[in-house]
Amino acid sequence: MNRTYHHGNLREALVDAGVALARGGGPQAVVLRAVSREAGVSHNAAYRHFTGHEDLLAAVAARCTEQLGQLMISRTAAVGPDDPVPRAWARLEAIGRAYLDFARTEHGWFRTAFSGAGGHGGVKQAGPHPTDPGADPYLLLAARLDELVEVGALPADRRPGAEYAAWSAVHGLSSLLVDGPLRDLPEDEVRLAAQSVLAVVSRGL
């Protein structure tokens, strides 16, 4: 159903429309004409806020990535109180499972999040990561790894670069399950694959 734009922030309305289209159709559905139509404004109006398709897709991708981050936050918050070390490992596993679940249940958002993604600010930062990672999946992962160091579960000298290995493993499995040769894997095998990859990440750390 088309949305009619009445007032407020038109750029946000266009991004909202793009996110709605991406959920069902992935990045291919995020085009200026379709987004303008969904928002109930003229095609020309969109060009006042976006220089072109890539600019629009990047904005929508950022919002889809934020959706992933919010799921990771909620899953982390659901980890009950425990001894610091088991809790830190459980929180790391929770965000990994959230990532896999998001990919499998929100195909459109998952594909869009990475098809139009810009460079993560966290990757470029030197020194400690921000205290508040917001809903950035990279920074949320970094925070969980930092927590492992803080509770003594991960030696500090093994912390640098750990996010690259962990992220690559979970994203790789997610992609294989969504768009790759594992997309028709039976559910019990999916659970085994997830458990195996997350266990390998933990053992590697």
Describe the protein's architecture and organization.
This protein has helices spanning 10-25, 32-39, 43-46, 53-77, 84-105, 107-115, 121-124, 137-150, 162-178, 187-204. It has 205 residues and is an all-alpha fold. α9 (162-178) packs antiparallel against α10. Helix content is 67%, strand content 0%. It has a domain at 66-204.
Task: State the gist of this model.
The chain has helices spanning 10-25, 32-39, 43-46, 53-77, 84-105, 107-115, 121-124, 137-150, 162-178, 187-204. By secondary structure, the chain is mainly α. The protein has a domain at 66-204.
Tag the structure with descriptive keywords:
205 residues, mainly alpha, 67% helix, elongated, TetR/AcrR family transcriptional regulator, transcription
Describe the oligomeric state of these chains in a short phrase: single chain
- End-to-end C-alpha gap: 47 Å
Q: What Rg, in angstroms, do the CA atoms define?
A: 19 Å
Biggest beta sheet summary: none
Q: What is the N-to-C order of secondary-structure elements (H for helix, E for strand)?
A: HHHHHHHHHH
Count of individual helical segments: 10
**What structural class results from the helix and strand content?**
mainly alpha
How many β-strand stretches?
0
Instruction: Report the principal-axis shape.
Output: elongated
| Low-confidence residue ranges | 122-131
Overall pLDDT confidence: 88
